[in-house]
Design goal:
11 helices, D-Maltodextrin-Binding Protein, domain 2, single chain, alpha/beta, globular, 2 domains
């Protein structure tokens, strides 16, 4: 009798397991034929621990739960994010390899690197813009400017006397500074660093005067009163800096520079697959825990259709290409 019961229990367990296995393809992002329960990789083109890596991991957790299949983050760093981007551009277009691309790797790089091994427009299928954040025109408190107008007047009064630092040649921080110089008709000296840490140390120490810094990078120093914000580079004021005006409202309408991150698939990925991945990504972005976590760190949660992201990218590539060309910027 016990043996018969045992066999029945075993059969029930096997049947339940079989049902679970059979259900997996139905919960995959799109087609059981194309993906089944294969592992999906989100390639981050930087080392672990940064904001891009963290964002990919949190989004990946949501996608794994929605699809009931593994979603992992794979870090492929190098050459300003272009190594990881190139890897995804050349991956099979089956929805299992995605890129968490950024302003540098998927907009600026097109003009910055003469021998870029991929085309930022032709070699990717935009899935969704995920987050954006403005840069902040930030000065050392010793600089005698409490407003953007005063800073511009100071720069015009002493051409070439004001210095601004960035995380490196060709970064969004550097090129936003060049765009600012063109818009305001000022002359300032660019001081490139290898990363933000050294730049911030010198800015707080007074070795350089200003930066067009990523909000996440400068926010702790702004809160501590060690640096002074003059303006943000987004079209609207930022929720974390409600009293800081935009460059646009300070007399330069249309001025906008964003540090953004978005999800991409290889170019030949079927449009219906891209659309369905995009829909799941947008659901993940709208999750309250994701919203609260990243909003508290200065990110503006986006979430767009593939078409809207494509339109945005076309404008970004055109804008940054013009800035790279006019400034003569070169990669480090």
């Amino acid at each position: 009798m016990k043996s018969l019961l045992s066999r029945r229990q075993t059969l029930r367990h096997l049947a339940a397991g079989a049902s679970s296995v059979l259900a997996l393809p139905l919960l995959a992002p799109l087609t059981a034929q194309a993906q089944g329960a294969k592992t999906v990789r989100i390639v981050v083109p930087f080392t672990p621990g940064g904001s891009t890596d963290l964002l990919a991991r949190r989004i990946g957790e949501k996608l794994a739960a929605a699809w009931n299949q593994p979603v992992i983050v794979e870090n492929r760093a190098g050459a300003g994010g272009t190594v990881g981007a190139d890897f995804v551009a050349k991956s099979p277009p089956d929805g299992t390899t995605l890129l968490m691309g950024v302003t540098g790797s998927n907009a600026i790089a097109q003009a910055l690197y003469p021998k870029l091994p991929y085309d930022v427009i032709k070699d990717f299928a935009p899935v969704s813009m995920v987050v954006s954040a403005p840069l902040v025109v930030t000065v050392n408190p010793a600089v005698k400017a409490n407003t953007l107008a005063e800073f511009i007047a100071l720069a015009k009064a002493k051409p070439g006397a004001i210095s601004y630092g960035s995380a490196g040649n060709g970064t969004s921080m550097h090129l936003t500074g060049e765009m600012f110089k063109q818009a305001t008709k000022t002359s300032m000296v660019h001081i490139p660093y290898r990363g933000s840490a050294g730049m911030l140390t010198d800015l707080m120490g007074g070795q350089i005067d200003a930066t067009f810094g990523d909000l996440l990078v400068v926010m702790p120093q702004l809160e501590a009163g060690k640096l002074r914000p003059l303006a943000v580079t987004s079209k609207q004021r930022h929720p974390l800096l409600p009293n800081v005006p935009t460059v646009a409202e300070s007399g330069y309408p249309g001025f906008e520079a964003l540090s953004w991150q978005g999800l991409f698939a290889p170019a030949a990925t079927p449009p219906d697959l891209v659309a369905k991945i995009s829909a799941e990504v947008n659901k993940a972005i709208k999750a309250p825990d994701i919203q609260d976590y990243f909003a508290s760190r200065g990110f503006l949660m986006e979430g767009t259709t593939p078409a809207a992201f494509k339109t945005f990218l076309d404008a970004e590539v055109k804008k940054w290409s013009a800035i790279v060309k006019s400034s003569g910027a070169k990669p480090d």
